[in-house]
Amino acid sequence: MIRYAVAASLARRDFEISRSYRTAFVLDMFWGAIDVLFYYYVSRIVGVSPGTDLGAAPSYFAFALAGMAISVVILSATTTISGRVREEQLTGTLEFICANPVRSSEFALGTAAYPFMYASVRVGIYLVLGVAFLGLSAGDVNWAGVAVIVPLSAFAMLGVGVLAGAATVVFKRGGSVVTVAVFGMTFISGALFPIALLPAWLQPLGKAMPTAAALSGLREALYGGGGVWSAGVILTAWGIVLLPLSLCLFAAAVAKARAQGALAQY
Amino acid sequence: MRAKARRTDTASVKAAVHAVPPIDSTAPLITIDKLTRRFGPMTVLNALSLAVARGERVSLVGPNGSGKSTLLRCVLGTVTPTAGTVTVDGHRAGTFAARSSIGVSLAQERSFYLRLSGRENLILFARLRGLSRRAASVRVAEVTAELELSEVAARRADRCSTGQLQQLAFARALLGEPPVLLLDEPTRSLDHDARRRLWAALDRRRASAVLFASHLDEDVAACDRVFRLGTAPRSPAEAAA
After folding, report:
1. pLDDT tier at B149 (50, 70, 90 boundaries)?
2. Phi, psi of B183 (to 5 degrees)
3. Are A93 and B112 in contact (CB under 8 A)?
4. What is the pLDDT at residue A238?
């Protein structure tokens, strides 16, 4: 049984800590906007080869914008958790969290909650920028589809993030391995260029990734297409399989750290 | 007005503490049976047995490295025994039920979110014990008033001194009014008044079972019993020699 109030209190903790670094908070948002502008101008000077399949996206900028948005959500659900666990180790609070009546699942979900909410705000800013200033058409957007695909993308990838957190509890360092793995997943599943441009042998792997379903789902929701709900089903299935498995492994990792006496170590 | 509110808060805590049922000193709240803990080749604790009854204060005494903190962590459940068993209020140490019964202050100030105020930290840890936000706020106000920490709690943790953080750690241990208190050198950096307030708070909680590690004679004297741990841990080779 998960006590959501406990997870919510951990999310509030992260919000308060994040808010205490006001300059970084503002700069982070600003950097996101710069990222969008970067791909906007790249798309204006670099043409797309005839015959390149951008799916439902009407332009390369539209294609990349969805890729950036999903990447932000996926990173929030994955690397942020291992980073947060590492921070808890370094500040000495991990042992105190584990000494309290807090379940591993509550800790994992509570740690993931704020980064996901923050990422959702960033996605919203990306889309508003695209629509308000950069020529994206808001008329065709299936907003309900966007509202479903964004959290489902986080749900599908949360298991990977919890696994990364489990690895950090046991091995301490390892965040960079997770970052590379998640970047690789988004890279080969078509975040910033179509999967069809990859070597033929790599394409099936790219299509099989949960990130591929997240990307195609968001593009179809933003630019029209019938695949939103099928992408939603795929993402849900990934989450249903990965999340319980990863939560069990996270609990096992904490148990192993207790056995090693490593909860207070860094 | 503020002073009146503080008196009222303190009065409510005293009333709550006085409402504690009569002490049953026969039931052990902490049971340690043949506890051994090794770290690699080093045996830090070797077949220790100890029972602490409800209402009993046991002082853990021993030289640096003798395993006082390790023993407390085994009871807390953040370190599992290599051999032997530890139970807290009838539950195996480290289980959810056992953790719910324990309030702890470890001998380190590295246990707070430094960008949050003392109050925000205490409210968070109260909420982790299952209190609603409102109940957590009330409880934190009561404990900080009792320990005269209201001003310290308003400060961000990274702006508190070591002694102030130690007082906040003690306040955190009291948040859930747990029946078991594990205190690892809680008076180490405290001034005379803060030590007096700490002992007064413990005196108001005579029903609690307390394991109290300290090097100070006055702390040891204030406990009901002394449990001595041996010399510093030895590797098998050192033990054989």
Report:
1. very high
2. -125, 115
3. yes
4. 93
Measure B4 CA to nearest chain A CA, in Å. Answer: 31
Are B210 and B173 spatial neighbours (Cβ–Cβ below 8 Å)? no
List C-alpha distances in Å: A99 to A166, B50, B145: 17, 21, 25
d(CA B152, CA B2): 15
Residue B57 in 3-state DSSP? strand
Residue A266, in any domain of the structure: no
Q: Which two tokens stand for residue A92?
A: 């000495």
B35 lies within 8 A of chain A by CB:
no
Q: How far is CA A44 from CA A39, A52, A126, A136, in A?
A: 9, 16, 18, 14
- Count of residues making up chain B: 241
Q: Tell which residue, A77, A83, A55, has the closest CA to residue A193.
A: A55
Residue A78 lies in a domain: yes
Give the containing element (helix H, strand E) for A52: none
Q: Which two tokens stand for residue A257?
A: 């750290």
Q: How far apart are CA B81 and CA B78, in angstroms?
A: 10
CA–CA separation, A66 and B222 (whole Å): 66
Judge whether residue A118 has pLDDT over 50.
Answer: yes
Name the residue type at position B240: A
Is B93 or A138 the better-scoring residue by pLDDT?
A: B93
Q: Which of A164, A61, A182, A74 is nearest to A120 (CA)?
A: A74
Which residues face A114 on adjacent strands? none
Strand ranges, E, within chain B: 28-39, 42-53, 57-61, 83-88, 91-92, 102-105, 180-184, 209-213, 225-228
Q: Which H helix or E strand runs over B115?
A: none
Classify strands B180-184 and B102-105 as parallel, antiparallel or unpaired: parallel
Hey, are the CB atoms on B113 and A17 less than 8 Å from each other? yes
Q: At what angle do helices A175-188 and A60-77 cross, to 10 degrees?
A: 150
In a domain, A265, yes or no: no
Question: Which range of residues forms the domain containing residue A45?
Answer: 4-260
Give the tokens for residue A2: 């998960």
How many domains, chain A? 1
State yes or no: ipTM above 0.85: no
Q: Is residue A157 part of a domain?
A: yes
Q: Residue type at A97? A: I
Residue of chain B nearest A256, judged by CA positions: B80
Contact A258 B129 (CB under 8 A): no
- Does B132 lie at the interface with A, CB-CB under 8 angstroms? yes
C-beta atoms of B130 and A3 within 8 A: yes
Tokens of residue B185, six digits: 């050198």
- What number of H helices and E strands is found in chain A? 11, 0
The model's confidence at residue B11, banded by pLDDT at 50, 70 and 90, is very low
Which is nearest to B104 in space by CA: A144, A236, A92? A92
| Sequential DSSP letters for A57-101 | -SSHHHHHHHHHHHHHHHHHHTHHHHHHHHHHHHHTHHHHHHHSS
The domain B24-112+160-240: what is its CATH number? 3.40.50.300
